[in-house]
Amino acid sequence: MSAASGRPILEVQDLKTWFFTSGGIVKAVDGVSFALDRGETLGIVGESGSGKSMTALSLLKLVPEPGRIVGGKILLDGQDIVTMDESEVREVRGNQVAMIFQDPMTSMNPVLRVGFQVEEAMDSHKRFTRREAKQRIVPLLRQVRIPAAERRSRDFPHQFSGGMRQRAMIAMGVSNKPSLLIADEPTTALDVTVQAQVISLLRQLNSEQGTAIILITHNMAVVASLCKRVIVMYAGRVVEAGETRQIFKNPQHPYTWSLLRSIPRIDASRKNRLVTIPGNPPDLSNPPAACKFHPRCKFRIARCSVEEPPLAEVDAGQQARCWVLMRNVENVEAG
Q1: Backbone phi, then psi, for 305, in 5-degree steps?
Q2: 37, 123, 176, 259: least CB-packed within 10 angstroms?
Q3: pLDDT in tens, 293-310
Q4: Residue 317 phi, psi dihedral angles, 5° rounding
């Protein structure tokens, strides 16, 4: 899937992360594969429970109990994170790969000043001396567009707005100059204007510092504004993948088509109704047989409930896991 020359910064091969519960085995991530080039931006989208956030947590071996990675490889610069021990993974976290979580209020310590927490993120990885770390606090806060950065560095998290807390988390994430930044729902609970500011900041980090970004989100519009490529997940599996522009213009999996048709568009005809996806995501401890989406799919055929389709190339650079494909469906409104 990666087009650039040279080895990708990240290669995920047949990743499987399962939860072993009293109710059975929950296959939260079930055979996910993708690659990410240096400096590339990749979006992973899907409804809640699709496996996108658990994929992100797996990349840094942060899977909570009773879950564990049971198969596959996570190659970071050719080294397999899955086989690393805890001390080796700690060296990777924050140094080579940083993660921004969706709730900055619970991710930051409420009793420590913001500037101290930014400094602590650097101290814990020893990439900079203590003096260098102190000198970098205010420039980092300025870089993420926090006004009056020197004064605000002495504030506590509760004195920051939601958007400013998220920007402070980004400052902590990039403080050690990681090659890869994973942003898990970074715009959740933020208003549209602040969402745009956060995405603009991530775009700036990508273009000016060459930081590769994986954006985990349910918001297709956010993916369109930032990501070069996109992976669509459903029930722990990749159901479509490819260039963002290509997939937005010509989605081939009914799930992707439905997600895109559920977004209001100002250029759409008033006659075109928004699409809703019937039903709920499946119980992953007892998923449907064959195609996991077929119980909710209005385009399903008999084969969909008997045999699961492979993730196959449907156009140059575009893959989909479907027996039907949207281009083969008659009477589907364009858009």
Answers
A1: -95, 0
A2: 123
A3: 999 999 999 999 999 999
A4: 80, 5
